[in-house]
């Protein structure tokens, strides 16, 4: 499908939305500690986002073509703890514990434009493998962003992410990808986080998309809970995700959620 290229004015509006996502992360970071529930984090995020005149874009969201097949997502944030890869539903019953790791994914709409990003937080001190998994996933995202330049193919983003993750003994989730966004949460292009030779679409100035590698400590296989949303590692080992939204310019990528 054709990619909708964004003007400088539209990119500025997308950056406003992205900066509100960033501010929400900065607020939540103060509250990620042992004993807090994921539902409490969700309530803090929703109150802050709405207080800034924006709307949580995940709340009530159903993927295209799935309406009536799966229930609408019920929360403001995705809260993915330990072996949950993505789309974890916040719960009053889920309390963070010392040594946990939680991925928080935030999407919002401000003045009609979308902001979208994910950060993973350690809960207190984590074990050495989890610390290394966090650092390698951050590096995967940074390496992917370096390849997001006019004239490169999208394949280069996925290839460098996969190579770095696997060279460190980890694996990259295949089923869930980065994506374009604008006034809609999901637009073209699709951004894979692994090497795919057929992924030859050229990167152009005006593209806006996310890069959001999900890196597993063990194998890449996934499974979905009965709630139809929560995605876990099949082997029960931990997963970490980081995501930024970026705009492509002739001078290089601008990270809208930095």
Principal-axis shape: globular
Encode the helix/strand succession as letters.
HHEEEEEHHEEEEEEEEEE
CATH top level? Alpha Beta
End-to-end gap: 28 Å
What CATH architecture do you see?
Alpha-Beta Complex
Helix amount, in percent?
A: 25-40%
Low-confidence blocks of residues: none
Q: How large is the share of residues in beta strands?
A: 25-35%
CATH homologous superfamily classification: Creatinase/methionine aminopeptidase superfamily
How many alpha or pi helices? 4
CATH fold group: Creatine Amidinohydrolase
Mean pLDDT: 97
Task: Give the helix/strand class.
Answer: alpha+beta
Strand segment count: 15
What are the salient characteristics of this protein?
four-stranded antiparallel sheet; globular; 258 residues; alpha+beta
Short description:
This protein is of the alpha+beta class and 258 residues long.
Notes on the structure:
It is a single chain. The chain has 258 residues and is of the alpha+beta class. Helix content is 27%, strand content 26%. The two termini are 28 Å apart. Helix 1 (8-29) crosses helix 2 and helix 3 packs antiparallel against helix 4. The model has no long low-confidence stretch (mean pLDDT 97). The longest helix is centred in the N-terminal third of the chain and has 22 residues, at 8-29. It has one domain (8-255): Creatinase/methionine aminopeptidase superfamily (Creatine Amidinohydrolase, Alpha-Beta Complex), CATH 3.90.230. The protein has 4 helices and 15 strands. It has helices at 8-29, 38-51, 128-146, 154-167; strands at 55-56, 77-81, 84-86, 101-110, 113-122, 171-172, 178-180, 187-191, 208-211, 214-216, 222-224, 231-233, 239-241, 244-249, 252-255.
């Amino acid at each position: 499908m054709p990619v909708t290229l964004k003007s400088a004015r539209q990119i500025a509006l997308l950056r406003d939305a992205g900066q509100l996502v960033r501010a929400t992360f900065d607020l939540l970071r103060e509250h990620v500690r042992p004993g807090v529930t994921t539902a409490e984090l969700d309530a803090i995020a929703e109150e802050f986002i709405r207080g800034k005149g924006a709307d949580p874009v995940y709340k009530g969201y159903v993927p295209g073509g799935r309406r009536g097949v799966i229930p609408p997502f019920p929360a403001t944030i995705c809260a993915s703890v330990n072996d949950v890869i993505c789309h974890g539903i916040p719960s009053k019953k889920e309390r963070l514990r010392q040594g946990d790791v939680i991925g928080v994914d935030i999407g919002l709409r401000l003045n009609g434009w979308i902001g979208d990003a994910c950060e993973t937080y350690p809960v207190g001190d984590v074990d050495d493998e989890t610390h290394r998994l966090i650092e390698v996933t951050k590096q995967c995202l940074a390496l992917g962003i370096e390849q997001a330049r006019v004239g490169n193919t999208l394949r280069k983003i996925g290839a460098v992410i996969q190579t770095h993750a696997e060279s460190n003994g980890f694996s990259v989730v295949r089923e869930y990808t980065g994506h374009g966004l604008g006034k809609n949460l999901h637009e073209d292009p699709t951004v894979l986080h692994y090497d795919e030779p057929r992924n030859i679409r050229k990167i152009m100035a005006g593209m806006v998309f996310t890069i959001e590698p999900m890196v597993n400590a063990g194998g890449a296989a996934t499974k979905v809970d009965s709630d139809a949303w929560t995605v876990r590692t099949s082997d029960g080992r931990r997963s970490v995700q980081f995501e930024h939204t970026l705009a492509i310019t002739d001078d290089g990528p601008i990270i809208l959620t930095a």
